[in-house]
Write a structure and sequence with these properties.
Layout lengths: L12 E3 L5 E3 H10 L16 E2 L2 H8 L2 E3 L10 E3 L3 H7 L4 E3 L3 E3 L5 E3 L3 E3 L3 H7 L4 E3 L7 E3 L8 H86 L12 H11 L1
Antiparallel strand pairs: 1-2, 1-3, 4-5, 6-9, 7-8, 10-11
């Protein structure tokens, strides 16, 4: 909501048409169940709220206020405008430990401790969730809380098994990929072979048609020549026509008759 009562001042103020000002979160939650100004009970809707006038916001920004960590010992007093900057750097502010690690059971855990900012460095030096290399030199990173239970030989065996399983997985993956490629190439070759066979059959058909055309074209002229030769032979070897009777000239016939008489 806003600041506590000892540090009371409106937080992100909004002003109603009746000029009463309230915290943004406070008046918004009020108007969920009520539709009037909390001060004078005049009708009020959330859409009619407006930011506070600039001069009023400037006056609020210059107000002096104690740090939120005054109960932990911080005696800083600053203006409201710079309060958040101070609280982000205040040494009395509680912050969470930043250490996160992985246990021996491969479970990721975070340190649940919250310490004041001024004591964070000393806590990090002794935090149970601080990671560091194995002092025996096996190469593993350990949490301080797991150091007493760490066994280098067992850890290396586990790591070896993990590497072996990873290698076998990669080999199997490569094998499946190669089989997939070979199957693809095999299907491609089968399709190519089928296409070539089809083309060969088409070519055979074309060659057969050409051969038939050539044979038919050579036989027709031969038959025509044979017919003409037969006609000539028939004319040469056939029976010659009987010669017509030779007529005797009239003068010769008359001469023959005179001689006979």
């Amino acid at each position: 909501m806003g600041y506590d009562l000892e540090r009371f001042v409106v937080y992100r103020p909004l002003q109603a048409p009746c000029e009463h000002a309230y915290c943004d979160a406070c008046i918004s939650s009020w108007l969920i169940h009520h539709h009037s100004c909390p001060e004078d009970r005049l009708p009020l809707d959330i859409s009619t709220l407006r930011p506070l006038h600039r001069y009023m916001r400037n006056d609020l920004s210059r107000l002096q206020i104690r740090c939120v960590n005054s109960g932990q010992g911080c005696d800083a007093v600053c203006c409201l405008e710079t309060l958040h900057t101070h609280e982000d750097e205040c040494p009395f502010t509680f912050i969470s430990c930043s250490y996160t690690g992985t246990t021996a059971l491969c479970i990721t855990v975070s340190c649940p401790v919250q310490v004041e900012r001024r004591g964070l460095e000393s806590h990090l030096l002794e935090c149970e969730f601080r990671s560091r290399a194995c002092p025996s030199g096996c190469g593993h990173t350990l949490l301080s809380v797991d150091q007493t239970q760490h066994n280098c030989v067992a850890e290396l065996r586990i790591e070896l098994e993990l590497l072996r399983a990873e290698m076998l997985g990669k080999v199997e993956e490569v094998r499946r990929e190669m089989e997939s490629r070979l199957d693809s190439q095999r299907r491609h070759m089968v399709q190519k072979e089928s296409l070539l066979k089809s083309e060969v059959e088409d070519l055979k058909g074309q060659v057969s048609r050409v051969v038939c055309d050539v044979r038919l074209g050579g036989r027709a002229p031969a038959e025509t020549g044979a017919g003409r030769s037969g006609a000539r032979e028939e004319g040469a070897t056939g029976d010659a026509p009987e010669p017509a009777a030779i007529k005797e000239p009239a003068e010769q016939r008359q001469a023959n008759q005179r001689t006979a008489s």
